[in-house]
Prior knowledge:
This protein is α/β, with parallel strands linked by helices. Helices cover 42% and strands 21% of the residues. α1 links the parallel β1 and β2.
Amino acid sequence: xxxxxxxxxxxxxxxxxxxxxxxxxxxxxxxxxxxxxxxxxxxxxxxxxxxxxxxxxxxxxxxxxxxxxxxxxxxxxxxxxxxxxxxxxxxxxxxxxxxxxxxxxxxxxxxxxxxxxxxxxxxxxxxxxxxxxxxxxxxxxxxxxxxxxxxxxxxxxxxxxxxxxxxxxxxxxxxxxxxxxxxxxxxxxxxxxxxxxxxxxxxxxxxxxxxxxxxxxxxxxxxxxxxxxxxxxxxxxxxxxxxxxxxxxxxxxxxxxxxxxxxxxxxxxxxxxxxxxxxxxxxxxxxxxxxxxxxxxxxxxxxxxxxxxxxxxxxxxxxx
Length: 320
């Protein structure tokens, strides 16, 4: 896919006052998800702060393409943004993947604190300087991921033989394997037909994903393992970002953080509402999960990927 160029001239030095810029922002979620509304608010506020000089166009449901393909376009300097996660960014800077590892953080507040930590900042700089990926912010917390299957899951042993959909990134794959299941890399949009066709036995997602995708039609158990607190990253091309006027850069970052934290609070409320909706649609919620057993099992993912030291370093900086 050929990326659209920003309207006006974009170059490495300070931009002239009359220059305008366009960011085409892509995400895989549907238009009914709280994140989509949050992205629209982010775009509106950036436009207002820059008097229309920086325009964000938001595309839902992967309208611009598959996430991995978009990230590669971003690395080449395209004026495209993508909602992604540290698991995928870990393909470039391995350590940052721990943010989406099993039981890494336990709350939104802990997730928001991560941006101030020296090790996290170092990894972000490495992403920008060596891989062309500028993290605008990662204050977008999508809630706890659980296992959604057609059988109750109470312990890692219950996942034996279960083919569980995960995104295609090492930390996701190894996390799900460590927790007892067989990971199957699959795009989010393929989950519903994948379940219908028995290509997978379940998925690990957040409650609002289930309602937005009507996955309760093809799944009947929600087991609250809460194995990953899903922290989302908003990334753009570092080359493109560096070509923006400084005040535009500031507006993009500050409004990303503000909209992200507001949306995270909305998600927290929506999660409980979505939980009640899946129950109303016939799903059984399994709450008596052996979380200690899952926590212990999850450590194997960090060990397998050589990330145990990174986990310990960041947790030390968090005083955990």
